[in-house]
Task: inverse folding
């Protein structure tokens, strides 16, 4: 396989994985006050040490009804030539920890994906590019901003509409550099098929970072701006 194709495979897998002041007491994080209302998470995205774009999350509303908008834009260049481009926008409506509605659009290097889902008659219906599905009435997506998603056995992939089984490790106390400052944190390991993620939270359950090893031992990282 030539170099260009190898790079495309690595970057494609990396981007698909993205379709993602405290105590060190050793106790799991407690309630997340930000997930109960509004919040904003803006991440610089790196593939190894190269910055390739951003992924931003904007949460508004109250605990009863919350609205999330996320926007991602990645670009990978090789010798000044763009070899991969990724755009993703997702809008979700939540009631408590139950997804009420979702609309997402993705352009993965020219390959389009669309997902629409809504809660109806005690079920959650999904229409996606790959087909249709009827899911349980209360489902969650990969809602990294709300650590309660870590307790779910299955999650909705907002890029392709698949409802996938997941496994999540117990939290491990860790130290993480956030905006140039070392902070105590808790790290979770999440696995969903080929997707393998590390996710960090503060003791009050604020989302701090995400990373995943991709093909060839390269690392995809989200760092807070």
Result:
């Amino acid at each position: 396989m030539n170099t260009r194709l190898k790079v495309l495979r690595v970057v494609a897998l990396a981007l698909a994985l993205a379709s993602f002041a405290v105590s060190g007491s050793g106790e799991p994080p407690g309630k997340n006050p930000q997930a109960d209302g509004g919040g904003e998470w803006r991440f610089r995205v790196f593939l190894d040490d190269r910055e390739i774009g951003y992924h931003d999350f904007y949460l508004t509303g109250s605990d009863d009804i919350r609205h999330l908008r996320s926007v991602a834009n990645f670009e990978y260049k090789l010798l000044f030539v763009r070899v991969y481009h990724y755009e993703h926008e997702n809008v979700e409506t939540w009631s408590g920890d139950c997804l009420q509605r979702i609309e997402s659009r993705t352009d993965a290097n020219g390959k389009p994906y669309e997902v629409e889902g809504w809660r109806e008659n005690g079920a959650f219906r999904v229409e996606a590019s790959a087909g249709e599905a009827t899911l349980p009435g209360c489902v969650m997506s990969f809602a990294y901003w709300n650590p309660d998603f870590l307790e779910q056995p299955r999650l909705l992939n907002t890029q392709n509409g698949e409802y996938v089984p997941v496994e999540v490790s117990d939290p491990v106390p860790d130290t993480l550099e956030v905006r140039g400052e070392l902070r105590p944190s808790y790290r979770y390991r999440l696995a969903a098929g080929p997707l393998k993620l590390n996710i960090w939270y503060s003791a009050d359950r604020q989302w701090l970072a995400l990373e995943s090893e991709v093909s060839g031992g390269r690392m995809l990282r989200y760092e807070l701006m």
In short: Residues 3-224 form a domain with the outer membrane lipoprotein receptor (LolB), chain A fold (CATH 2.50.20). Confidence is low (pLDDT under 50) at residues 3-35. The two ends are 36 Å apart (CA to CA).
